[in-house]
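Hey, can you fold this one?
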Amino acid sequence: NAYVTKLNQILGDKLEGETIEAIAVKAKEDGDGPLFNQAAQHFNHSFYFAAMKPNAPGSMPAELETALTKDFESVDAFKTAFMDKAVGNFGSGWTWLVYDSADTKLKIVNTGNAGMPEGTQRPVLTMDV
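Sure. Predicted structure:
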């Protein structure tokens, strides 16, 4: 709520109709640190909490399991790599499972503070660290 409230104060009616991701990207491109921090943290937290569901199924979608096995050798190897990457993320930030369309692979990336996946990376899963 704090990120949304502060973001609305900064934005006013600028960029009305844009997605939160587009606002964060534009703010970063423009070098607007305060706007980027609020917009990116809003995006990151919304993405993070949207992945949590009560009574979620006990198994992951078959397509995801296949992709994780292809790019990490196994789901267990992915889990280990993801946790290792998260533990190694110094300070405040995020660890992401992303799909990188540049090489059509799943990857694990860390971002600091309000950082979010960029360019050809599309978020699949994240952890706030």
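Residues 96 and 126 are 4 Å apart (CA to CA). Let me know if you want another pass with a different chain boundary.
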